[in-house]
Structures are given as structure tokens and as C-alpha cells.
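Database export, one record per block. Field names are fixed; values are copied verbatim from the stored entry.
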Amino acid sequence: MEASINWLAVVVATLSTFVLGAVWYGPLFGKVWMAEHGYTEDDLKDANMAKIYGTAFVLEFIMAVNLAYFIQGVSAGEGVFYGFVTGFGWVAMAIGVNYLFSRNSMRLWFIDAFYFVVSFTIMGVILGFWK
């Protein structure tokens, strides 16, 4: 099978994770996420944000490329389905196993895992819509 990837769609799908992350880890769950980690505002001030956002972009770009290869040629509706089952069935469950052994809370698992469920679902829509 010859791969035909729409690179603009991949970039838009990647950027969608940043928009979602700003809302998800900001007003929706930011304070709870910080509390679950035991972080304060001062703890986060010394972070190298250029490194964090730059590396996150590369990793999420790779995720979008990977999903694009898996779902190439599907419709936007099918993209929703495949994005969701990728996020839920693979990513959220893998994070769940890791969190069990790390003894992280279920609340933190929900916040982190379902960010990726929603991220992959949105990426699936974008990648399915822009073939």
C-alpha cells in the first residue's frame, strides 16, 4: 500500500493538541492536576518552557504522523472512531497500567489519560476530514 499523508493535516492535528492542552490543563483540570502532583505555582515557574513545548510538539507531531498512517483514506466520521479507540484502547489503558504500578491516583489517571483520548479523537477528525 502506498502511503499518502496530508502533511498540512498532520501539522493542524498536532497544533490541536496544544489548543486542547491549554484548556485541559488550564481552566478545566489545571488546579486539580497540580494538586495531584503536589505542585505549587512556584514549582512550575522554573520550568524550561521552550524545551517542554518544543519537545511536546515533536512528540505530538510523531503521534499525528503515526495516526495518519494508520487511518489514511478514512472519512472524518471514521476518523472520530479510530482516533477515539486509539486514545482510549491503547493510550489511556497503557497510562492506566503505568499509573497503577507508579501508585498515582485514579484522578490523575483520568486527567492525563483522557486528555489523550480527546486529543486522538480530534486528530482523527482532522486527519479523516483532510485526506
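Remark 1: The mean pLDDT is 94.
Remark 2: The chain has one domain: 7-129.
End of record.
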